[in-house]
Design brief:
about 240 residues, 4-stranded antiparallel beta sheet
């Protein structure tokens, strides 16, 4: 579904990412883990088109997206929830979601409706007439995920989904995310807390100083987490 080949990118003359090769297959949940400053957010911004790579390619379903602008990547089935969410705070919950409905791609394996979203996140129906800026952090995160899903992706990318949220809310969100593959949606989860994503991810990549330094294959999560030297070396645990 998604592949990056020897991606290099950064900000101005500062190169952050070097030789990044990752793959997300159809129906997979893949995690990118690493300590703060590893380059995880730069990778997300590069994949979704907010940063143009200086080398390498980004391919989705056989189409080279490397030079395609962000809004057109949505039409290729990619949605992203950035760490700062970027919701329209002064608009209501429903208004934010209507914008997504209006600009989402047509088609998709299994279209999600507003009614589907309220079943995934019942709080959205309760808060739909309220301004987003008045919601709690957890509620805003749910709205951000809902907005991304209403763009009708087959690949959802999430940058640090647990940041600043209570453990109970994180658990609720991860439960919803884990169920998305049944709707034909693959996931790329970028997270500092490896123990959170280990429960739902099929495979993983560990980043450090802008490079992929370790791969976690199917069935290897427990072995990785139990290796204290490896975790400390790459995640600072």
């Amino acid at each position: 579904m998604l592949e990056t080949h020897r991606i290099a990118s950064g900000y101005g003359r500062m190169t952050i990412l070097r030789d990044i090769d990752i793959r997300v297959d159809d129906g997979e949940v893949v995690a990118i883990v690493g300590a703060n400053g590893a380059g995880k957010t730069t990778l997300v911004r590069t994949i979704c088109g907010l940063i143009t790579p200086t080398a390498g390619t980004i391919v989705k379903d056989g189409t080279d997206l490397t030079a395609i602008p962000t809004h057109r990547r949505v039409k290729h089935g990619i949605s992203v929830v950035l760490e700062n969410r970027r919701l329209w705070g002064e608009l209501t919950v429903r208004e934010n979601l209507r914008l997504a409905e209006a600009h989402g791609r047509s088609g998709g394996k299994q279209r999600l409706t507003y009614q589907d979203i309220t079943k995934l996140f019942p709080i959205i129906a309760e808060r739909q007439s309220g301004a987003v800026e008045l919601l709690s952090g957890g509620e805003q995160q749910m709205v951000a995920i809902a907005r991304a899903l209403l763009m009708q992706p087959d690949l959802l990318i999430m940058d640090e989904p647990s940041t600043g949220l209570a453990p109970k809310i994180v658990k609720e969100i991860l439960k919803v995310l884990a169920g998305l593959r049944a709707r034909g949606i693959s996931l790329l989860l970028v997270e500092q807390d490896v123990s959170l994503v280990a429960g739902i991810a099929d495979r993983g990549y560990v980043m450090s100083v802008g490079r992929i330094v370790h791969q976690i294959d199917r069935g290897q999560w427990q072995g990785f987490l139990s290796d204290e030297k490896l975790v400390k070396a790459y995640l600072g645990g």
